[in-house]
Amino acid sequence: MASWKLSSRKDRHYRLDKAQKNRTAAAIVVWKSNAPSDLQVTAGTALRLTRFTRGRVWFRVNPGTTKRQMCTSLTERSFQRRRFLPDAFSEWRVDPSLLQSAQCLKRAVRRNVMQLSADEKRRFVSALDQAKRTVHPDLVIATRRYAEIFGPDGNTVQFENVTIYNYFVWSHYYSVSKTFLGAGQASFGGVDFSHEGPGFLTWHRFQLLQLERDMQDMLRDPAFALPYWNFAIGGSACDICTDDLMGARSSFDMNSLSSNSIFSQWRVVCESVDDYDTLGTVCNSTETSPIRRNPAGNVNRPMVQRLPEPKDIADCLQVGTFDTPPYYSTSSESFRNTIEGYSAPQGNYDPIVRSLHNLAHLFLNGTGGQTHLSPNDPIFVLLHTFTDAIFDEWLRRHSPDSNVYPEENAPIGHNRGYNMVPFWPPVTNAEMFVTAPENLGYSYEAEWPAQPFTLTEIITMAIVAALVVVAVIFAATTCALRARSYRMEGHQPLLGDQYQRYDDEKSQSVV
Ligand SMILES: O=C1C=c2cc(C(=O)O)[nH]c2=CC1=O
């Protein structure tokens, strides 16, 4: 294997930037493995700590290190999870631009799930099922609030193993769970760390990225990519609700999945929301009932019986401002509130509207339509990768400066520099407000609906077309008239009288 040689001495130093200090997250997810007690920055054989300077740690690449070893040591995961970070250094992470420049990021290409081959569909469904059954190698979940986290005897920490997929569900549940205010009191529902604020897009982006990376590790396939569901197809048919994908409808119960789908075997977690709210317990990893789904079947709300239209995507991509005060579900002319689906697709806020992402959730009409439970339905993954694809396309088209993301006055957890609850290690909204291909190691293969023409454009085009037709008719008429006049002048109109004579003589002499 060839060694990876770096070109100059200067280049042999890499920068580790200190991440945000301000935390909103409580340490509710902990590492299973103990972090080493002293700072041994050896990271395998690849890197050697050379010095600390203000806010930075410098490394040198050891001689003989291959590029692959170098990248393994540099990736965020190997640093943060397994190597050398004792508690005091858990805030440190690798500057993504370093991974980029060292060409360490392997790009996962997220594709339309309907365009996967039969084999790719089978592998994706089976990978999800494996994630539902595989215990997370690094994370456990807290099953009690902070007040009871050390257990009844004060010495038994209340953490549990959880599978990779159930951790994905749990993190969403935790982010929307109500705040317990005490026995006999109603829990407070005014805090949502992942919806109804600018963090909606950045929070779900990280949630998906964490699942994708966990699945890449599980499959030992760094190029594994989550596909997406283009839910903006209009109509009332769920195209991905087939047994080779997310499960068809059962023939016996319109709210259940067909027994031919592996997902009919899945059981949901975080269902006992009443207990959490009245007893102050926290969702644990207990699996309870099957997934419920009845696409387009909400008879009480005809408005959510149809999926969004392609034009809704074209419209929302034109909303130029990322978010607007009050940075909430009432924001108007806000791209975030539009794609989230509390505004009309053109951006104007209307309390009765449900569009785009929200409409796709409500269309599912079952597990996938209830916020504390929705990721239990694996359609959640595909619905949110598509939402994230639209976000990435918006970032690409509008090239916003990082300061268009609000620094203050957003709901708790949603400000730019805040850590997103409950992710561990801490990660800020700002870190996810970047284009994915250049910064996060994945991209989307997608085509976007073109904006239909406006009335002014249609009138302008009609006038131009009419002028072209008039010009063509004029030119054709002119040509026809000229041709006619030439015919009347004789068959050799270019020859005047004297040449005509010469021509006659010449023809005679030849004869
Ligand atoms: O899981 C979700 C379910 C939702 C329902 C609505 C709604 O607009 O009523 N919004 C939702 C977001 C979700 O994430």
UniProtKB/TrEMBL annotation:
Superkingdom of origin organism: Eukaryota
Major localization class: membrane
Claim: Zinc is one of the keywords in the record: yes
One Pfam family named in its UniProt record: Tyrosinase
Domain Tyrosinase copper-binding: 195-212, 377-388
Cell location: Melanosome membrane
Oxidoreductase is among the record's keywords: yes
Gene Ontology BP terms: melanin biosynthetic process; melanocyte differentiation; melanosome organization; positive regulation of melanin biosynthetic process
Pathway: Pigment biosynthesis; melanin biosynthesis
GO cellular component, one term: melanosome membrane
Cofactor(s) the protein needs: Zn(2+); Cu(2+)
PROSITE patterns named in the record: TYROSINASE_1 (PS00497), TYROSINASE_2 (PS00498)
Catalytic reaction annotation: 2 5,6-dihydroxyindole-2-carboxylate + O2 = 2 indole-5,6-quinone-2-carboxylate + 2 H2O
Annotated membrane topology: Single-pass type I membrane protein
GO terms assigned for molecular function: metal ion binding; monooxygenase activity
UniProt KW keywords: Copper, Disulfide bond, Glycoprotein, Melanin biosynthesis, Membrane, Metal-binding, Monooxygenase, Oxidoreductase, Signal, Transmembrane, Transmembrane helix, Zinc
Membrane-crossing segments per the record: 458-481
Coiled coil: none
UniProt record similarity statement: Belongs to the tyrosinase family.
Name of this chain's protein: 5,6-dihydroxyindole-2-carboxylic acid oxidase
Organism: Betta splendens (Siamese fighting fish)
Lineage: Eukaryota, Metazoa, Chordata, Craniata, Vertebrata
